[in-house]
Design a protein that fits this description.
By secondary structure, the chain is mainly beta. It contains 1 helix and 10 strands; from the N terminus they run E-E-E-E-E-E-E-E-E-E-H.
């Protein structure tokens, strides 16, 4: 059951409590709220009748075109694919003889992944983060983003390339030597 929802690095997370009393943190799927039930499935699908949003399942139990995120590879024990805000993967095909599944990632690339890897059903929360506008340069600086200004756009006091209205003359080093060789 979801006890608490919090935001961390632009993604929403949830503190959940299992039936045995253990607590855990998960990435929150879109559509899950405080009081919703979440479970982890390790056994075969016949023991559980329906797929619940936020359920953590091995990839081998999913059907074709299922939407999921937070693929957790068993090799390094950390999430590798589809952990950004609002993204999801799609299962394209299963290859049981090789223990592989073909997955379409958010970047539209298609990878073969071990079918023993766990994933979370649904789509990652905070879908509208890409539309968020930080108002000022100061707010960007506080979040760790620093704007980059081209040297040509500066004054000659600020940068060796500065002071020209056009960029026809060659780029110079700090000591006045030609920095770029044109062929």
């Amino acid at each position: 059951m979801v006890l608490k929802i919090f935001q961390f690095k632009g993604k929403y997370g949830a503190l959940i409590r299992y039936l045995n009393g253990a607590h855990s943190y998960i990435l929150l799927p879109y559509g899950l709220f405080i009081g919703s039930y979440v479970n982890t499935q390790v056994f075969l699908n016949k023991f559980y009748s329906k797929n619940i949003l936020g359920k953590q399942v091995p990839l081998k139990f999913l059907k074709k075109f299922t939407i999921f995120f937070n693929i957790n590879l068993k090799v390094k024990k950390r999430a590798y694919y589809a952990i950004s805000s609002g993204v999801y993967c799609t299962l394209l095909s299963q290859h049981h003889e090789f223990n592989l599944v073909k997955v379409k990632l958010p970047s539209a690339k298609q990878y073969f992944i071990s079918n023993k890897s766990f994933c979370t059903l649904g789509r990652n929360s905070n879908l509208f983060k890409k539309y968020q506008v930080l108002g000022t340069h100061r707010l960007n600086l506080m979040k760790g983003f620093k704007s980059v200004v081209r040297g040509v756009a500066m004054n000659p006091v600020d940068h060796p390339h500065g002071g020209r209205t056009k960029t026809n003359s060659p780029e110079l080093s700090i000591w006045g030597w030609v920095a770029k060789i044109s062929h």
